Amino acid sequence: MAVRGNRRGAPSRVGLTALLAVALELACPAGALENGLARTPPMGWLHWERFLCQTDCAQEPRQCISEKLFMQMADLMVSEGWRDVGYQYLCIDDCWMAPNRDKQGRLQPDPKRFPSGIGKLADYVHSKGLKLGIYADVGNKTCAGFPGSYGYYELDAATFASWGVDLLKFDGCYYGTLELLAEGYKTMSRALNKTGRSIVYSCEWPLYQKPMQKPNYTEIKQYCNYWRNFADIYDAWKSIKNILDMTSFYQDNLTAIAGPGGWNDPDMLVIGNFGLSWDQQITQMALWAMMAAPLLMSNDLRHISPASKALLQNKEVIAINQDPLGKQGYRITKDSRGFELWERPLSDGAYAIAIMNRQEIGGPQAYSFSLTFLGNGLACNPACSIQQILPTSRHLGLHNWVSFLKVVVNPTGTVLLKIVVIEEKRDVSGSHSLGVL
Ligand SMILES: *[C@@H]1O[C@H](CO)[C@@H](O)[C@H](O)[C@H]1NC(C)=O
Ligand SMILES: *[C@@H]1O[C@H](CO)[C@@H](O)[C@H](O)[C@H]1NC(C)=O
Ligand SMILES: *[C@@H]1O[C@H](CO)[C@@H](O)[C@H](O)[C@H]1NC(C)=O
Ligand SMILES: *[C@@H]1O[C@H](CO)[C@@H](O)[C@H](O)[C@H]1NC(C)=O
């Protein structure tokens, strides 16, 4: 018995050609933004959902958007182990700027809240082995009313590069017309490239375009490393549900485009805040891993429960999110009780499977499903080993292709599994303890 590296034994000639084609495609993904970045979904921390636009440091010294806040988060990202599990980008959102550009027309930080300047903050963040993200807007103003980049794309890109910034979240408020929106996102992408600095480029282009026009994801991926499709997340189960429902509704379009260098962004992780129950936090973590989503936490690392921290730092879940194959997962069924079954193809022929219980009444419910159809019939063929990853890690043993698996899922919770195919040398139906859980 051996864990298989590729599908269905020795590849045929046709299989080899197909493998070669896949390898070539992976080596130079057709039309992805060629900055060499975001080969797996970016991970880090972004201030918006938790800290919003608090600018009053006199009244709210610990909550206001200031260099102190980012330095504290940088310290904690290192001392509390966040960096070591992969959370690397420490990202500033809106409200860092002074109300006006400087005499040379450059953006400048608010002098009271960022007295040392962004360049010094970037140095500090880099000294911790982290990277710094910043925020700007394609239009005349940012969403909170600070100076927009319209008319200044090249200058702003050059300014960010001179400060040592590593990621730009480029918002779309006050975009003018759809033509200016598209032109702005493309121009900023070229301007970032021209700086010569490696800067991850996060777009909200499809989000602003969608109400009027179908996004052309092929084009968006040529310019952006990841992009928002749906409205801002907020700290409630309703928001998580909306994002999951929208994502599965458009999943054919969204999964087709995601891959190394370009990702769909369902927005920040709100785990560790106030609005989600424990099971709902598990659901967000599991499904963000299934969706190959950027993992950008927006929480207060100074005040986070050990349970939420362990969930966010769960290495098995992060490994699924960061799987090098870079295929986004999708929903395969939804039943009348509200159970959803999602799958995500992983490298080496493995699969991640998520079973979500959407019922919001009652207690834990059993869900039984056939392994035969997972991965188009290949995930467990002829047999597989199943590891439960969430809500707790445990080995569920070996199973054969025709088995059913039964899991018990709490209301609004999720069970996350990893399935590794097993090549049986002997008849599977033989003496092994394969079979039903
Ligand atoms: C700029 O784009 C070119 C080709 O598109 C690419 O080879 C290069 O690495 C990019 N540079 C940066 C800094 O992103
Ligand atoms: C920004 O404002 C100027 C002057 O009012 C206007 O010409 C331009 O179209 C605006 N740009 C956008 C993107 O709205
Ligand atoms: C989408 O963009 C791609 C790349 O720019 C282009 O080749 C294609 O024609 C566009 N599709 C549509 C429907 O406009
Ligand atoms: C999704 O993709 C299909 C097939 O390419 C296309 O016809 C459809 O317009 C797309 N839908 C959206 C919302 O982009």
The number of helical elements comes to: 14
Looking at CATH, the homologous superfamily of the largest domain is Aldolase class I
Euclidean distance between termini CA atoms = 21 Å
Sheet with the most strands: spatial strand order:
8-7-6-5-4-3-2-9
Mean pLDDT: 92
Relative strand content: 15-25%
Roughly what percent helix? 25-40%
Quickly give the structural class.
alpha/beta
Largest sheet: 8 strands, parallel
Low-confidence spans: 1-29, 425-437
The overall number of domains is: 2
Ligands, ions, cofactors:
2-acetamido-2-deoxy-beta-D-glucopyranose
What would CATH call the class of the largest domain? Alpha Beta
Count of beta strands:
17
Report the C-alpha radius of gyration, rounded: 23 Å
Overview features:
single chain, eight-stranded parallel beta sheet, globular, alpha/beta, Immunoglobulin-like, 21% strand, binds 2-acetamido-2-deoxy-beta-D-glucopyranose, TIM Barrel
Structure notes:
GO terms for molecular function: alpha-galactosidase activity. α3 (67-79) packs parallel to α5 (118-127), α6 packs parallel to α7 (178-195) and α12 (278-290) packs parallel to α14. This protein has helices spanning 13-27, 48-51, 67-79, 82-85, 118-127, 153-163, 178-195, 205-209, 217-223, 237-249, 251-257, 278-290, 306-312, 315-321; strands spanning 2-3, 43-46, 89-91, 131-137, 167-171, 200-203, 226-228, 263-265, 295-297, 330-334, 339-345, 351-357, 365-370, 383-390, 394-400, 404-409, 414-423. It is built from 14 helices and 17 strands. By secondary structure, the chain is of the alpha/beta class. The model is unreliable at 1-29 and 425-437 (pLDDT under 50). The chain folds into two domains: 16-321, Alpha-Beta Barrel (TIM Barrel), CATH 3.20.20.70; 330-436, Immunoglobulin-like (Sandwich). Bound molecules: 2-acetamido-2-deoxy-beta-D-glucopyranose (NAG) (4 copies). One 2-acetamido-2-deoxy-beta-D-glucopyranose (NAG) binds at residues 214, 250, 253.
